[in-house]
Amino acid sequence: MKLVFATHNDHKLKEVQQLLPESIELLSLKDIQCYDEIPETGKTLEENAKIKADFVTQTYGLDCFSDDTGLLVDVLNGNPGVYSARYAGEQKNAKENMAKLLKEMEGEKNRNAHFKTVIHLNLQGQSHRFNGIVEGTITTKEHGSGGFGYDPIFKPEGFTQTFGELPPETKNAISHRGRAIEKLVNFLKNKTL
Q1: Beta strands in 8-148 (DSSP E)
Q2: pLDDT at position 32
């Protein structure tokens, strides 16, 4: 089975490739010669994931899935949320995003947050949605250089290390994206049996 993952993010692509069974050939936007920056104009993670998947399916006629992920911080009323990637501006700089978030949380006792991933799948003319959530806390400074995005300042519940410090296989097993992808993979396995 061939499936397009609607992303230009090589980190995400690699992370997802490690989770999918070998029977699924994962294609990136580059693989299908799509270099467009698909506009994420939705007000929710669900809307953005659907916009991206629909763009590929309608433009290229291919089965596709896309994700949108947000970091939702309790004390910031769920921000940065849908704006996580461009929290500090349209340049989408992870270091600047983390710096802005840490500055806004200076002195805050409540550091609870969660990552949420929404996957929208267009397959054989039907749409499906899968969610994954991981609870945790925001640290007061960066720890580790692994992962991407907010990983160095997010400590998942039950762990003493941030996503930036955990080995990739551990992060993938417990992460929001890992949980959403697991639901997607289980669905696809049942479809291909």
Answers
A1: 25-27, 64-73, 80-81, 112-123, 126-138
A2: 96
CA 140 to each of CA 90, 108, 155, 170: distance values in angstroms, whole numbers, following the listed order: 24, 10, 11, 22
What pLDDT, on the 0 to 100 scale, is given for residue 20? 79
Dihedral sign for Cα atoms in the order 37, 38, 41, 43: negative
8 Å CB contact between 79 and 86: no
Tell me the DSSP string of 29-61.
TTTTT---------SSHHHHHHHHHHHHHHHH-
Give me the CATH topology for the region 2-192.
Answer: Maf protein (3.90.950)
Which residues of the chain are under the pLDDT cut of 70? 192-193
Q: Please, what's the b/e burial string for 6-23 (b: 16 or more CB within 10 A of its CB; e: otherwise)?
A: bbebeebbebbeebbeee
Q: Which residues are annotated as catalytic?
A: 68
pLDDT of residue 192: 60
Please report, for the chain, the start and end positions of each structural domain, with discontinuous segments joined by +.
2-192
pLDDT value at residue 39: 84
Q: How much is the pLDDT for 16?
A: 81
Closest CA to 171 of 187, 188, 148: 148
